[in-house]
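In keeping with the milestone schedule agreed at the kick-off meeting, the structural modelling team has produced records for the first pair of proteins. Each record is given below as a sequence line and a structure-token line. The laboratory manager (R.T.) confirmed that both were archived under the project's standard naming scheme.
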Amino acid sequence: MASTGGNCSSCTWIAAEGGIVPGTAQRFANFVERTETANFGLFLHLNSVGGDVNEAMELGRLIRSNGFNTAVSQTVGDERSSTNPKFDQFVIEPPVSSDETRPACLSACAIAFAGGNLRLAEETISEPVSFGFGSIGTIGVGQLFSQEAGMGAASDGASDPEIMVQILSYLNDMGIGSQFLSIMAATSSPDTHVLTAEELFETNIVNNGRYVAEVAANQNGVAIVDVRFQKADGAYKAELFCKAGKIRMLVEADWYVSPTWNDVESWNLFKNVLLLGDTEIPVRLLTEKPSGGSDTAIGPLLFEFETEMTRIVPLKAFSFTQGPGAQNRYSAASLSSLSFVLPDDFDGLYILPRTCL
């Protein structure tokens, strides 16, 4: 475990550095069991030149089944013993900014990286993107090897038809496009190909910053703008529509750890919400606590933008914050997760006032 000591969502993570060798996946499984960190949406910061492809696939499946996210990022700092006996270390200093410390996830590491629910990487390290106190690095692919196929040549694993079928099946299970394997196989040994921004998104090896929006029609003829996006704590769907002259937003979330209505009351979640912009717009939560009580898990949440429709339909960025007096780190994180950006070429919000209930 690594931490800056802060309370932000990216201030605690799992540092995964070095080669992927036989036994790596089992050691990770033991670590997860010991630290009880599964299904909390934590990030693994991967920085590795790769290693054994079979081990990488096993590691990737463990990452996915335990609800972790992945980022290409190096962990550098002052290592100290943790006060928590379950954890291995604290890293309290930010990484230094130099070429030697810029992160990369290469070859078999990219296979393990694919296991993350939310996957963060960049196509260039010339101007690294900040993530917490670190920076996001690149995905590089090349010829693979398998311990079972032998260590004699880097291309042994990638040329074995059986292993290629296994990799393709694994990538399909992880939701990664087959183009990823094609790019990997086309890279001549010992070269490494750093994936471009286009390749990162086309293969779906990264899914950060991607928001899918489309216009759908309800059975009653009301137009709905359906926005889907992935965040560190789960997958989100926001439906925007018009009712009684106001734009409303119905949010459904598949959280890794679902909050309850007790959390809503204790931490003022989704209360006193503001939509940021030239001027702040109040956003009212219409959903009320169900009769089942405070321990009931949160279901779909319905919000209403308390302003004229004409102020909402031109917007691209829906960035939410909380008004004075209600803010805390949990409420701030919940609203950050609700925030999204519509694609530049999408203007479907303009249809909503025409089909208002």
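The second protein of the pair:
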Amino acid sequence: CVQLYGFTSYYKNDLGYLFQNYALLDEETVAENLKFGFAAKKMENPAQQKVMLSALAAVKLAY
């Protein structure tokens, strides 16, 4: 891991990723866009599903 300006500690914390222009990845589904940030956390699929459904419910997009 390369440490630039002390950002290594930020990477290890519970941070999310927000696109600056709020755009979604066009070629991905809503679920795949939400799961995008889970890859860095190495979160298991059942946990991803639970967090994803919770996030969708919070914005009234649950299915």
